[in-house]
Amino acid sequence: MFGRSEKHMALAERTAEQAIHGRSLWKDAGDRFVRNKAAMVCLAILACIVLFTIIGPLFAVWDNETIDWTAMGDVRGLGAPSVESGHFFGVDDLGRDLYSRVIQATTTSLLVGLIGAAMALFVGTLYGITAGYLGGRIDGLMMRFVDILLAIPATLVIILLLVVAGRSFIMLFVALGAVSWLSMSRIVRGQTLTLKNREFIEAARAAGVGEFTIMLRHILPNLLGVVIVYTSLLVPEMILAESFISFLGLGISEPYTSLGALIAEGAGTMAYGTIWQLAFPLFFYVTIIITMFFIGDGLRDALDPKDR
Amino acid sequence: MYKLRTSAIATLVASTMLVAPAFAAGTHPTTGEALADDQTFTYRVLDEHSSVDPQVVEDVTGAEVVRDLFEGLMNQDADGKLVPGVATGFTTNDDKTVYTFTLRDNAKWSNGDPVIASDFVYAWQRAVDPELSSPYAWYMEITSIENAGAVIAGDAAPSELGVKAIDDRTLEVTLSAPLPYFATMTTHSTMFPAPRSVIEAHGADWTKPENIVSNGAYVLTEHLPNERSVRERNPMYWNNDNTIIEKVVALVINDENVALTRFMAGELDRTEVPAGQYPRLKEENPDIAISFPRLCNYYYTFNLSEDGPEVFKDVRVRKALAMAIDRKIIVENVLAGGQPEAYSFTPAAVAGFEPPESEMASMDQPARDALAKQLLADAGYGPDNPLKFNMIYNTSEAHKKIAVAMSQMWKQKLGVEAELGNMEWKVFLETRGNQDFDLARGAWCGDYNEASTFLDLLTSPSGYNDGKFSSPELDALMQQARTSSDTTPLYTQVEYIIAAEQPVIPIYHYAGVYMMDSDVGNWPVNNVEQNWYSRDLYKIAE
Amino acid sequence: MLGYTLRRLFAAVPTMILLIAASFVLIHVAPGGPFTSERPLPPQVLANIEARYGLDQPMWKQFWDYLSNIVFHFDFGPSFKFKDRDVNDIIAQGFPISLTYGFLSFLVASAIGISLGIAAAIRHNTWIDYFAVSLGIAAQALPNFIMGPILILIFTLQLGWLPGGGWNGGAWPYLIMPVIALSTSYMGSIARITRSSMLEVLNSNYIRTARAKGIAERHVIWKHALKPTLLPVISYLGPVFVYVLTGSVFVDIYFSTGGLGQAYVGSALSRDYSVLLGVTILYGGLTIVVNLITDLAYAWFDPKIRY
User: Fold this and answer.
1) Topology given in CATH for the domain delimited by B293-512
2) Contact residues on chain B for C263, CB-CB shorter than 8 A
3) Which of A37, B98, B530, C146 has the fewest CB within 10 Å, making it most exposed?
4) Closest Cβ–Cβ partner in C41, C156, C263 for B135
5) Which pLDDT tens digit goes with each residue over B241-282?
6) Which of B392, B405, B442, B384 is nearest to B324 (CA)?
7) ipTM of this model?
8) Does the distance separating the beta carbons of C152 and B429 come in below 8 Å?
């Protein structure tokens, strides 16, 4: 499409990149990330949320499971957010303190979102890059396997996990991981397919660089942009997927809760004059989404190998 | 909070639904109320019905439709009392083993054919036929019709069932044991007639709106699964002149909050009130929010089987847990729908049942709490040695709230640590059925208005007794009740045993809690089984 | 390409059989059967029902009967729960509904999402970018289960403009809320992926080269940047396309549309073996076809890709 000149340029740049590679790839990226204001602000906000989940409980008047029987009798009145009653965020439908519940839910959901997305990141990327790079029959087999897994009813898989392994926090992550890596692997594979035909890869191969090194050193860095963005999209998806998994009985059970569960409860009662039951958990959820967006963006920019 | 809005949206919906000709406005023949022009009754159902085949249907939603489409030998009136249906009456022999029903001569199928005795014979044979394999075949067995069990087991041909058509107007039923309430049982959909020629012509497709032929006040005209089903007046129905509602629309709306919103928007005449919202709605719309007792109980069962935890084998522990539950809080603050607190297993609304004056019912809550602490301490549990167990329930907002409230009551009063576990419905049933639990939620709705429908659950041989409670004394009393003419004291006695042994913790008894548009006339609130017939309803002009 | 397509279609057969077999086994080992209920059926009644549906046969026999009925009669069996209907009925009724609102939602989500993403990337760090980003976040921040009730509260209860649910043959007033609810949940993600992919492409050497050569910016974007930008978007859209075509359980639940999403989730929960398998097969078939189309689209967008 662009003739030889582009190929030469790319080649030249790649060779130059090779030279500085070992020294400063990660450090450069780190510097660039620090310079990204939006990302840094969001990182600070995320840190504040984490800090809040740690020191917030110190200020709590009520714990996350004790029912305030007085507030329970009049959730719309006495249960409203108030400093005097000690229910800073109001109470849920049962008269439990929403402040403590939101803190506990945020901790859980952050863990679920980050760990779930990270599992998708590792498994999906590894699988996708292997399939895409090796190509041919192996690619075909690996991708048909993904097709099958995409179509198998996840509800049943989760129910079976519950029956075989029992309810636990770890099984929740296994379940999340099992369903989340599939789309990631397809995206990574698609990108790998186009990357592996680029001139710089051909050049590297011609120069005798090993296949594994090509995958790790040349393809992977060029994939990171898409992968990071998709991972940041997966965080909210995982947070919501958790509530379905918990619905089936695998995962989090009362008195513990999660943002997904609190939002769903709040959404049910939003027309009944207890809007704080939706507002507070939704606020934390949205804040997490926003920070993920800009942190993801910042990471993408920072890790873009072309951008230096 | 929201004013009822019936303007724009109603026109929009009406313009698409109003196929029936506008009926001349009139007045109700007995009450004299002015009737609305549009006699359409629209109500919300939680789930798609399983079938409208009378012998196959197994869910409440489906049974409601089938009761409108078909008519059995006998019906129930607004109070749940027996009134004639297709049969004008019946006679029995002295020991109540042979029932002879006389059929009215003007009953017709919607295709104009007369309803004759052999339609019932066909239907009942069909219900027990292994080939149809009706999930309600067991119902035919408990009616005691001769050979029902043998036909189900494949040991006898369906034609050997103890029912025969003496002539077109006379149906004779032979029972294997005397059953005083057999006629009452014919109000159930499994015993409705079935149109043989139509079923033979269309097979399983006979219930599709384009094929179905029925003998009730309505015919099925439209069925859009998971969206709606529509039934319209059947002009062939023998009592068509007294039917007022022209058209009945059942809308499937899974989410109760959305259903309430749509009710407020004027799209529905009836919907359920979500847990906890009744007091507010009642305050805002006193004529519209209604609550009345139902024939259902809600309880937790201890696992008393060999696999069950040792601690629950101590009756003091069971009693302590049952005592410490403040049912008033649960019914007033959690459910808040006018449900009665439960201190007996059988709801007090059941006909011919007298709840016992048990110890627990007569105390106030502080006294119960004190006794609970005492009992638990006697059993060896206290702050240093807290009682621990798990309790399971199937995933649902209302079940969750009750379980959380219960566990908090125990925790705060007794220091008991109950671990909560929710499960998906089928997993829950399997787990409970395998006695793989400590304490499990249970609920039961009566099949008929008689205490044995509840109390049989706690007999040793019962397949529904998931807690595996076993009391020879209770079993003997229930056996005795089967043939006794005065069952009331026996059932009260059984409840005394339950109160003493506490194999279950009764929590509350159900109430029907509805938003019912004030223009709906004659909703049978006194029919505790909630067997309602659209043809008894009417819409009042507003 | 034709050879490749044929090979892929050929490979679909063993893939489908594996999928059916795996789902079949999963369904049968999952706890609770279609006839497990609060009121356990008496053994004899249960035995009759199981005999009627062939559940008393050994598993291999059931599997074989099931497969041969599909292959020779295109009959997916009766529903175990909705006894008046068979699987063919249920799919024939629900799929067109899901297809209609799903396809519309897909069009809306990808059209708006991709446009927003491209606009944001071209005008990086301008108000257009910020607007697109905020819109994307807002769309993502309101999950389906909030969107549904909110839309009904606003458009049905407060404004009285739209019916609160139902399908009514797909008349437009009934379509609006389902399409809004379903499309917004994907729109944000699509915009996000497009934006970052476009930024990356605009930053790449050959675009720089093209610009250096003095090619008009507009030409650079439409002729050179667009295709590579869309590659990862297409990877994302593939599975999304299958999801929305087979319906959304949230849409079906909140708007009573009667689509396949609810039938699918409902059948898994009620262990309606035949319906679940039938929808899974449809879903698997669509996945295979859509993934094939995606792969062909890759090759079209990037002619260097060879399979």
Assistant:
1) Dipeptide-binding Protein; domain 3 (3.10.105)
2) 226
3) A37
4) C41
5) 889 999 999 999 988 899 999 999 999 999 999 888 898 899
6) B405
7) 0.87
8) no
